[in-house]
Amino acid sequence: MLQLTDLTLRRGPRILFQDADLAVHAGWRVGLTGANGTGKSSLFALIRGQLSPDSGSCALPPDWVIATVAQETPAVSRSALDYAMDGDVELRTLQAELAEAEAAEDGTLMGTLHARLDAIDAYRAESRAGRLLHGLGFTDADLGRPVSDFSGGWRMRLNLSQALMCRSDLLLLDEPTNHLDLDAVLWLEQWLTSYPGTLMLISHDRSFLDTVVDHVVHIEQQRVSLYTGNYSAFELQRAEALAQQQALHERQKREVAHMEAFITRFKAKASKARQAQSRVKALERMTLVAPAHVDSPFHFTFPAPARLPNPLLQLEQVQAGYGDKAVLKGVQMALRPGDRIGLLGPNGAGKSTLIRVLAGAQPPLSGERDAAPDLAVGYFAQHQLEQLDAQATPLLHLQRINPRATEQALRNFLGGFGFAGDAATSPVAPFSGGEKARLVLSMLVYQRPNLLLLDEPTNHLDLEMRLALEIALQEYEGALVVVSHDRHLLESVCDDLWLVAGGEARPFEGDLEDYRQWLSRQDRAPAANTDAAQAVSVATPTQDRRAQRREAAQARQRLKPLHDAVKRLERRHGELETEQARIEASLADPAIYDEINKAKLQDLLARQGALAAELASVEGEWMEALAKLEGGEVEG
Fold first, then answer.
1. 425 to each of 59, 396, 415, 447, how far by Cα in Å?
2. Under CATH, to which class is 313-540 assigned?
3. Domain 2-235 has CATH 3.40.50.300
4. What does pTM read for this prediction?
């Protein structure tokens, strides 16, 4: 097994984790979670021997073969198939030794090497590599193409294929789904569930984690904690622990404040000095529980669009593609406020092409794109991350959008996307992919679009930001079209699914599980993947799925007044608690009890009583609104 014992790891002056103890048993599938920068990738580097612990030890069986995904791909002329097979190092070593033995005509050694090759199933290695590449989205024609022909994202898939090809004891995967589409993610998910070795996986895709892992290691506040179960089980366990921790912290905070007030007030009085001193010692002995830092740094909403024309945009018999090659034909689509569409389809079928046509970034080859005069498109695509001004700051990017906005207003807005303090005035150049994605999203949200077109918006985003984006999109009032390999996002925000396949784009009358089954049928009968209409009808085990999603959308609209009331009451409750904390801090000041402050003390006590009553009233209304919301009630 892999074991960390009293391990402390630093990067520069910063401690990533301290006195960590962890045992990962053979065969476990472990998800590694924690905010960006907490040390997940550094832990992988430590396991690979690229980093040394500052104290403690990291031990694993000496005969374990470790596989990981290379971050760089040389522009070599080797074919994609040969490149994938290179991942089986033992295979390549034996093949090289066999070639030497054949050249030397050493029959005995040749026989020994053939036996070893047979033992590792070498004669089916090419077939195994081909299946891996097909699963990751490569076509038969791609297998013979040189690696240098592929783009960066496809080269990362080739690196992933090498790691999967390796017959490893320990597989380390750092964000393996970032460069995959949904089809490849579904395939990889199934491959990993049958992987016989030990898996450690860093991912921000909660659906992927839920299916693949059976343990979660969470890094937070320099601690490494192990949880049993998948990601959803981890969330429940951690939420319960944090709730208990926070309750204990709040109680201890009140006790500490009371003790400190007593000490400050009476330590100079001889009659009370001994009691004050005993409280000083009690404070020193008390083990303070750290506050539960569970609040996400990301909080934002989509402001209501200035106008919501109906329809916003229509496509009439649109043919789309590149040059003389049409990827899509006969597309009919009308987008109205409140539409929430997720695009599904095999890689290369035309999902991103359709998004670009909707955005107006690519003209149709034929047909009509009819946009409302007040259409305001918010279009997110990965290439926009590289189009940011590397020397400009997040603040300057927003100032260019609205030069009349005050700096403080823009700073407040950027804070909701994690750009607080100096982060708002730092140049973009050294930003990570996640930081750039958050900045592009902030610029998009700021412009109040009435049509959102999102092409893989969650790439590089961590779990907290993905959750914030999901919550914001659920309350967005315009129309939404999204392409994403993040199933949790699709399930959370989309009411309708469209299938882009066979040169067509049409409504898909199933859910994501139906889509998985449709994909498996295409793998078994590739010739059948020629007609999108046929594909849609095949994937319809129940005809009421779409009706159910529409009912869910209508229910969300019907319950919106209750959602708004809950949010208003929560906001008011927070304001009252803040004022209550200020009054309690004033009452903890010994000076307030002096005769000169008698009137002020009475005012504070009166306000404290009024606050308690208002808090109880607001809390009652809030609980009542929540109960109605859970019961689906709406006042007439």
1. 43, 8, 12, 20
2. alpha beta
3. yes
4. 0.72
